[in-house]
Protein 1
Amino acid sequence: MVKRLENKVAIITGAANGIGLQAAETFALEGAKVVIADYDVKSGEASAEKLNAKGLTCMFVQVDVADRNSVDQMVEHTTSTYGQVDILVNNAGITRDAMFRKMTPEQFQQVLEVNLTGVFNCTQAVLPAMLDQGKGKIISTSSVSGVYGNVGQTNYAATKAGIVGMTKTWAKELGHKGINVNAVVPGFTATNMVETVPQKVIDQIVSQVPMQRLGDPQDIANAYLFLASEESNYINGHALHVDGGIMM
Ligand code: CAA
Ligand code: NAI
């Protein structure tokens, strides 16, 4: 059977851990060569080693998505090693939660730089390759916090709403060039990121989800895979909620 990402090269940012790592394995199992592009060298190298040991094709490249030079070098390393870039998943993200009245300008800026400027940097850096190929898939990770708001997340919600706005703009600018641009909007998902959330808040969140559970990283990776595959070729500018139906 033909694999869904056979002969494709995918860059997944933030793939050393959590959702990105699950996506790296999912994509590689479907035949993609995967670049684990992450700031975290220790987890990134260990994750790449683990996937390669399973016979999958991937490499770790250290990158700080907030730093344009670092992003350009990561993309250059990808094209010189694998020859092309077919898929970009803008998955890297951070939180610096605080109530609005206590949030420092540094906390606000830090999250903007990684979650929003990072998506701008990576997408702009892969564009020349995708335009040359006349084909490409760009997927960026939003969040239910950006759609509905969330206590303690002024900075994070701003970036995740901004990602949807950028996605729709790029879908309009790039659709006729053969590039699909979409976003995934995960609900609360069981990774390191939610470990900072007090248990009583988690319980309250789960009680609002019709499926009565947190998301699993595989739930989100499956949506990335669909939007990266040929099956979604006529889907453009969409924000796909994968949130168990929280707050309809
Ligand atoms: N809904 C309603 N009220 C809430 C609330 C919530 N979810 N969380 C906190 N509050 C209220 C508290 O009850 C408290 O009320 P009072 O002042 O009346 O007592 C007030 O807000 C202040 O709360 P804290 O005492 O906890 O304040 P703090 O300054 O110590 O901490 C905080 C603030 C850091 C924001 C902490 O409450 C917290 O971590 N909350 C969770 C934030 C969260 O949900 N983050 C999501 C991370 S996962 C993620 O980001 C992935 C994704 O995309 C969804
Ligand atoms: P995670 O914390 O497990 O993984 C995030 C990864 O991003 C880490 O490997 C980290 O090293 C990397 N990273 C952070 N800053 C970076 C930078 N400057 N440059 C390169 N890499 C960097 O988090 P998780 O949960 O896997 O999150 C993945 C994406 O999903 C994020 O964009 C997050 O905002 C989003 N999301 C997560 C939800 C959740 O509940 N876990 C819900 C909704 C969205």
Protein 2
Amino acid sequence: MNRMHTARFTPSRNVDEITGSRRLRRMRRADWSRRLVQENRLTVDDLIWPIFLAEGENRREAVAAMPGVFRLSVDLAVKEAERAARLGIPALATFPNVDMALRDAAGSEILNPENLINRATRAIKAAVPEIGVITDGALDPFTDHGHDGILRNGVIVNDETVATVAAAAVFQAQAGADIVAPSDMMDGRIGAVRDALDAAGYQDVAIMSYATKFASAFYGPYREAIGTQGLLKGDKKTYYLDHANSDEAMREIEQDLAEGADMIMVKPGLPYLDIIRRAKDEFAMPTFAYQVSGEYAMIEAAAANGWIDGEKAMLESLMAFKRAGCDGILTYFAPRVAEMLRG
Ligand code: PBG
């Protein structure tokens, strides 16, 4: 008979008898045995490093709500890409802080082949061809209202936004992006991006879908970093997912995969581990989490106050993603973790 089963389902069973035969603490007694039975590992190969871009040269601007994170001009972003490659970090994801003068209601600067994202991709791929570059495909860094799409009469218009995002993806591929990552949550964007890339000859450029992106309070510091904090009117609830919903998140993933997504992402990360586990179990696709700015800020702020051990909390949070089923994590901790893991 299965003792485990009996122990679980017979409440009257003598407790001494159960512990006598089955002592789970045996394997926890020593460091060597803990290492031997450890189920998940965090390695440098699990890391994607999101970096913020700024105009100018030799510029390194601190992001107040994200201690240790900076906006970098393209020349310094290249230096960081070189450092990331030396550390063995597989890929970077870039996010631009676009000049306010270039932002408009339609986000038209996203269609400039020489915009900040595309210039950074070119420079990084020229200097460090071996590192993966992931470019973001949403309009919010380019619009003067901070929304991810084209705003008309108070509505984020879906299909026109999709056409713009698809056209922008082609420019990003042209600049050398290895993966384009549409993060705008418009319906039909993945299929449109796939078609546009294929038509332009970029069959080998992959798509990472921000398939389940929730309307979340945890993006606050990011908006300071890319300068949309003071711009955003209202919220993003008409296009991002309601954070109360899990079935709907599965429908988003199913649709994005049907349209051709190569990999999927859950965002934010730690408050959504249930979504990650469900996504991995149901679809068995390459699955990523974005440990977003607010998650980073919470750990950093508590650590700065001496309330938690920041380094341990960082590692524990990243291991949680692996345990939940992630293949990798977008995290602002990437270079710090990589340095630690390399001893
Ligand atoms: C928008 C976008 C967001 C983030 C990256 N791209 C969310 C938003 O501004 O609403 C958040 C990343 C983070 O918080 O670290 N396309």
Protein 3
Amino acid sequence: MAENVIILGTGCAGLTAAIYAARANLSPLVIEGGQPGGQLTTTSEVENFPGFAHGVDGNELISNMRAQAERFGARFEYDLIQSVDLKGTTKKLQGAEKTYEAKAVILATGASPRLLGIPGEMKYYGGKGVTTCATCDGAFYRGMEVVVVGGGDSACEEALFLTRFASKVTLVHRRDSFRASEIMVRRVKDHEKIELALNCAPVEVIGGEDGKVNGLKVEESGKGSRVIPTKCVFIAIGHTPNTKVFADQLKVDTNGYFVAHDNTVSTDLPGVFVAGDCADHVYRQAITAAGMGCRSAIEAERWLADQE
Ligand code: NAP
């Protein structure tokens, strides 16, 4: 029998949708994919989620949301959805080994870290010195010099986090002005362990004889190229929305984000709703993702009631 509602994704958006759908007695099935818990599980302290005057650990926030959803009857399964048919009355989602069916679907599939696409990046990715997660890998570089690439809040946050372990953090940014918020830029500039390499575009990850990263070659505008010595390159240059599997059925914009109807969470397909970073290229905050998750569950509930 078809589920009432299937929620794809267990980040802030998916879990908030699960809490609301579960409290509405819809007994939602939540499918968690490649990154259970979403992006907050790769961050350290979350300082701007309302209700936590002294900040909250990202993993703790997510596991509390999940426990809250489970308390009201949300069920969780791990699977990677390979293809979907969302056009009919019964929505079909093909997992690795089974097909799921639902009357309504909430897509909260989030976004994945973007990579630089330069030589050496993939060769040294994962365990050999190139990574997108300081929280996961920072402790491996205790006492070493590391590089963070990017000029947004993520890069600043990663750089500050890495000062706990590294002897020196060089923040490499391709321009001389930041996308990050004032407060983060100020903290980065004031930190004695952080050095800025501005107007520097990364061009190659350089390896050493041990088969691991040894430096990052950058092109500094007007000054030519140089190699910044480092044992690790932390890439923090934004994210790509996880919408590829659905892009033949749902409207996406030029950057691949789901397009909902004007300022809503509803899509062109009846019974299909979107929430969080897969559908928001503007705000991309934990709290806005949670807000969209809430709205999508309420919309799904109303839509299901209308079908009866
Ligand atoms: P972002 O704001 O999009 O910044 C990405 C940065 O990477 C930009 O500085 C960009 O350079 C640089 N970049 C992109 N492609 C590049 C390439 N190929 N080579 C070199 N540099 C490249 O992404 P984000 O920092 O991940 O932040 C995303 C959202 O999450 C933002 O809304 C941010 O406020 C939010 N966030 C908030 C917090 C917090 O509040 N604590 C923490 C993390 C993230 P240009 O500037 O030249 O384009």
Protein 4
Amino acid sequence: MFESIADKLKKSEKIVFVTGAGISQESGIPTFRGKDGLWRKYDAMKLATIDAFYEDPKLVWEWYEERRQNILSAKPNPGHLAIAELEKHRQVHVLTQNIDRLHQRAGSKSVYELHGSIITVKCTVCSFKGNITSSFSKLPPLCKCGNILRPDVVWFGEPLPQDVWQDAISQASSCDTMIVVGTSLVVSPANLLPVYAKQNGASIIEVNPEETPMTPSMDLSIRSSAAKALPELVPIVFPV
Ligand code: BJW
Ligand code: ZN
């Protein structure tokens, strides 16, 4: 790593991670784009929009139930664990597009779920929101109010939860270093977070085996997997 970036990282009081599907790839959770990505197998517009959900709620629910089972049986990998470890030494916040809760299971305390969570549901009509505690006997599941429940995730064309998004902008705009891990940075508005960081003078580092549209703006690009690269960053931030 270049000396100046390593120095900046070492001196950073506040480190913000922006994470995407790539960080969970080594936990056995598929990414969306790329050669084994979900969008190669499935049509996003038939599964990840509100119109698709109303068209065929059972189909969309079956897809989420299958993914939820896979996610529940997955474990945080050394990448998630390294981020949680850093939190013991520095102020660390995680702005994640992932819905898998693996950061929280790894021990990260300050996690902002930009695209919701696969573990929670919300009602399509009333304000009910709750955790999924067991398998549903019938799909789509119904709310106490009689209307259908939906996964509490953000689909294409839907706004991000506004409180979470405002907090994410504020964390991105006030960090010393931002580390962008495992995201293609093609989905807006999450892909603006490195722009906020850069505009406010932070160093930005990406960890991704592939280039992204933000690669030219990065102070450092680590072309490696998250589970390999992130544990190597810990002793740089906090030498023993
Ligand atoms: C590794 C690795 C390893 C691999 N280690 N790295 C035209 C039409 C319609 C909409 C739009 C449009 N143009 C723009 C839009 C807006 C749209 C958008 O951005 N679309 C683009 C795709 C073009 N955005 C939205 O619609 C958002 N909402 C919005 O804009 O609202 C506006 C609004 C305001 C007010 C009122 C109303 C509306 C919402 C976006 C929601 C995205 N939802 C999904 C599904 C979530 C639920 C679920 O999981 O089912 O979120 S889509 C999917 O993409 C998911 C992800 O969070 C998101 C980002 O993907 P991510 O994480 O970057 O994954 P990949 O697969 O793309 O990349 C993985 C990366 O990891 C790669 O780079 C690999 O190289 C790397 N990698 N292995 C490290 N081991
Ligand atoms: Zn309801």
